[in-house]
Design goal:
Elements lengths: L4 E4 L2 E5 L10 E4 L2 H9 L6 H17 L7 H13 L6 H16 L6 H30 L8 E4 L14 H11 L4 E5 L6 H12 L4 E4 L4 H6 L5 E4 L3 E3 L4 E4 L2 H10 L4 E4 L5 E2 L16 H4 E2 L2 E2 L12 E4 L6 E4 L2 E3 L3 H10 L2
Parallel strand pairs: 4-5, 4-7, 5-6, 7-10, 8-11, 10-15
Antiparallel strand pairs: 1-2, 2-3, 8-9, 9-14, 12-13, 15-16
Helix pairs in contact: 1-2, 2-3, 2-4, 2-5, 3-4, 4-5, 5-6
Bound molecules: 5-S-methyl-1-O-phosphono-5-thio-D-ribulose.
The site of 5-S-methyl-1-O-phosphono-5-thio-D-ribulose has 17 residues, from helix 2 and strand 9.
């Protein structure tokens, strides 16, 4: 498999995640508008991956300038377009802020090519750092998994959602290397089926045993002692540990608590939004109603039926057993442990 996203000959290439697992096709973006649309339409998705895409989007935006005039205004336009693509994942805004800092540091340089090079360097570093952070998350998190255990995951927090290794699935990969007898249960994750389409696809490709279940089966399997632990990614974590992740995660966390099963969140530090005191401040994206009325292209409800389609929910910190980051594993109270981690840089 080629990487989830890569920079090649002044283009951003990404695997079209809407088409998986049926077809492995790649989308080429030549300007920032194409990157913005790829994020909006979920060609690329997953919090860290959209951060990387947005960083490359900035590079393409600046490369598209016809001349050196109006740098500031043009940069703001490109930045705003990418910023408005998806509201929940902190990593998108974090990556854009990184790129804005590079722009600011080079704003007075008379050399436009130099600015472009500096932006490209930073975008490539963001991609590389994500890969390294995910490997470190896996390195810490594997200690939480024992041989023979079964792990429930929700949505896709894997290589496809990151620069290539995964957060929750990074832990799975690292644990599998030591305990080849672990088993993953993947929630299908309606409405867009990231669990069924993407998690199952990438785990099967790595030879990691996976069983697909529909979202409403998780409670039953927990009650029957068939799940040892839950492991999910995150889109944004408030400083008290409240965690936004794919819709349905909250229900899984409540079920895990009811059944005495640990619920772990795996995420890099740049998913944590220290400006938010609690999860009620996390913006929750509402997506198009047709995603609920249809499965793929097939209508499964009256075409005009009213629909709600929040793409994420917030799991209160009290249901989170631990958060696994690239700097280590932290436990409640998260206000203190996350802050200590932040200062540990
Ligand atoms: O709407 P999506 O597919 O972008 O949602 C993705 C998730 O909710 C993932 O679990 C999250 O981004 C963590 S990815 C490492």
């Amino acid at each position: 498999m080629r990487p989830t996203i890569e920079w090649r000959q002044d283009r951003v290439i990404m695997i079209d995640q809407r088409k998986l697992p049926g077809e492995e096709v790649y989308v080429e973006c030549a300007d920032h508008e194409q990157v913005a649309q790829a994020i909006e339409t979920m060609v690329i998705r997953g919090a860290p991956a959209i951060g990387v895409a947005a960083a490359y989007g900035i590079v393409l935006g600046v490369m598209g300038w016809p001349d050196d005039s109006q740098r500031e205004e043009r940069f703001v336009r490109v930045y705003r377009r990418l910023e408005e693509t998806r509201p929940t994942a902190r990593n998108l805004f974090w990556a854009l802020e990184q790129m804005r800092d590079v722009f600011a540091a080079n704003r007075t340089s008379s050399d436009l090519a130099g600015l472009q090079r500096a932006l490209l360097d930073r975008a490539q570093a963001i991609e590389q750092e994500d890969l390294e952070m995910c490997r470190r998350i896996g390195g810490w998190g594997k200690a939480l998994v024992q041989g023979g255990q079964t792990i429930l995951t929700h949505c896709n927090a894997g290589g496809l959602a990151t620069a290539g290794y995964g957060t929750a699935l990074g832990v799975v990969r690292a644990a599998f290397a030591e305990h080849p007898d672990i088993l993953v249960y993947a929630d299908e994750t309606r409405p867009l089926l990231q669990g069924a389409r993407l998690t199952c696809w990438e785990l099967e490709r790595d030879g990691i045993p996976v069983v697909l279940i529909t979202d409403n089966m998780a409670g039953h399997l927990m009650q029957k002692n068939e799940i040892s632990l839950v492991l999910t990614g995150a889109d944004r974590i408030a400083r008290n540990g409240d965690t936004a992740n794919k819709i349905g995660t909250y229900a899984v966390a409540v079920l895990a608590r009811e059944n005495g099963i640990p619920f772990y969140v795996a995420a890099p530090m740049n998913t944590i939004d220290f400006s938010l005191t609690g999860g009620d401040q996390i913006p929750i994206e509402e997506r198009h109603p047709d995603e609920v009325r249809k499965v793929g292209d097939c209508l499964i409800a009256p075409p005009q039926v009213r629909v709600r389609n929040p793409a994420f929910d917030v799991t209160p910190a009290r249901f989170v057993t631990a958060i696994i980051t690239e700097r280590g594993i932290v436990y409640p109270p998260f206000e203190d442990s996350l802050e200590a981690l932040r200062r540990s840089s």
